[in-house]
Specification:
CATH superfamily: Jelly Rolls
Structural class: alpha+beta
Distance between the termini: 23 Å
Order of helices and strands: EHHEEEHEEEEE
Radius of gyration: 16 Å
Strand content: 25-35%
Mean pLDDT: 92
CATH topology: Jelly Rolls
Helix content: 10-25%
Length: 170
């Protein structure tokens, strides 16, 4: 069974997935108080070589790079999210997501990526480049991200079933 949860309010997520409360509360402890919303993304997927782990497997940033979102990410299983092996100072990024991603791909083309260690809770912000990957290993991947935001509204999207996470276009 695959699960896709997008921008669910923290309290609602904890009621729906109480088995994750210890992990999510640990993640919440890494974010400051005072944000309007704390939202959870949770994706459980069965990885097959050749499929993408997110909508865009290029370098990208989450949210609006001019805003103050903070994130904590934890990934278990194969095909974990990649960050840069060393930090980089980014220029001001363009407004459009596609323009941002193209610029990041050009800027970071020769930079060494580092897959997040399994189970590590990685804190980052809206200017931290990272990327999903095209699966090279078969297995179950669990992606759990908590976001502190003052401008993104809860969507509370939940889908369960087979083949519910992102799939790249053929």
């Amino acid at each position: 069974m695959e699960i896709f949860v997008k921008d669910m309010e923290l309290d609602k997520f904890l009621r729906k997935f109480p088995e994750l409360s210890e992990t999510v509360n640990s993640m919440r402890g890494k974010l400051p108080d005072g944000h309007r919303s704390y939202l959870v993304d949770y994706v459980v997927m069965d990885c097959v070589p050749g499929i993408g782990t997110c909508r865009d497997t290029r370098w990208h940033v989450d949210g609006d790079p001019k805003k103050d979102n903070l994130y904590v990410l934890r990934v278990e299983g194969p095909n974990r999210t990649e960050f840069l092996a060393s930090p980089v100072d980014l220029p001001e990024l363009p407004e459009g997501r596609e323009d941002q991603n193209r610029l990041l791909e050009d800027l970071l083309e020769d930079r060494l990526p580092l897959r997040i260690p399994e189970g590590e809770e990685r804190v980052y912000d809206s200017r931290t480049p990272h990327r999903g990957v095209v699966c090279d290993e078969k297995g179950r991947r669990i992606f759990l991200r908590l976001m502190a935001t003052n401008y993104i509204k809860p969507k509370n999207i939940v889908r369960r079933g087979d083949n519910v996470p992102f799939r790249p276009a053929a």
